Amino acid sequence: MKNFTSVYDIDNLQNIIAKALKIKENPLENPTKGKGKTIGLVFLNSSLRTRLSSQIAAQNLGLNVLVLNAAQEAWNLEFADGTVMNGDTVEHIKDAIEVLNQYCDIIAVRCFAGMKNKEDDVNESILSQFLKHAKVPVVSLESATRHPLQSLADCITITENWPFDKLKINRKPKVVLTWAPHIKPIAQAVGNSFTEWMQQMDVDFVITNPEGYDLDKNFTKETPVIHNQEQALKDADFIYVKNWSSFDDYANMPKVEGDWMLTNEKLEVTNQAKVMHCLPVRRNLELSDEVMDGKNSIIYQQAKNRIFSAQAVFSEILDELN
Ligand code: CP
User: Fold this and answer.
1) Residue 64 DSSP SS3
2) Best mutation site among 186, 276, 278 for ligand 1 pocket (most ligand atoms within 8 Å of CB)
3) Is 279 marked as a binding-site residue?
4) What is the ipTM of this complex?
5) pTM, two decimal places
């Protein structure tokens, strides 16, 4: 694996899930694999899980870890080419990346959608600069349109709860991605990415969201999009809860009819569905306390699997470097 920015950087999804599950059994199986090598974790946006799970994963492999909370601790970055930098920006992103090349064997970066210019976000204006200027492998820690380490952790979690090779059940699990309410516009990256990865899994996958909130068709492709949540949830085995803002009316929040927050009552039409969320979650807005803390939630298991998702990916990249 050279870079890891989407499901398309994986050769075989089932193999990497199996690898991650094996790592989970013994995370310190290869404690010197990354010895003498350095990974830089660059955060242009906030994080709890991605920052810590990536750090644990890298340390489990013996990598040196540099964490740069760039938004708070680094110089104010300029992203536009050709700019006369006589304003607030102090360092150009391409100079910063060239310097990271001197210090790191792997560069991992979190760069959310700016949510101001649709074209910039769709074209991954920041991640693309890393891919262009980095001379070492680049790992996405969530970009404008995707969150691949989260999605791999989601696939691992579904596999643990529906062990495809061991179950006698002669059907695919039904997985539903449901939109949830929020107070402010949120990017589509998690929803896009989960969609892309579910399309590669052996599952029956549907998306449900209010009118006006359909994800980018470049991600949803042939996946059914149902605007009636109750209908979509019927017989679900897994429900993935996530908010996102409008893609068509970019980064806006069109008016929504009805209550889209998942409750125990809504779970009654499901097949005792397991409930997932990438976190952070706004309780009793996106997801009710009763579901979050209830027996159907596998959300903390999902968060733990972020370690093994990252470790499997870093391990594959080290295979190329060693
Ligand atoms: N799910 C996730 O990426 O969490 P953080 O934003 O806290 O890293």
Assistant:
1) strand
2) 278
3) yes
4) 0.99
5) 0.97
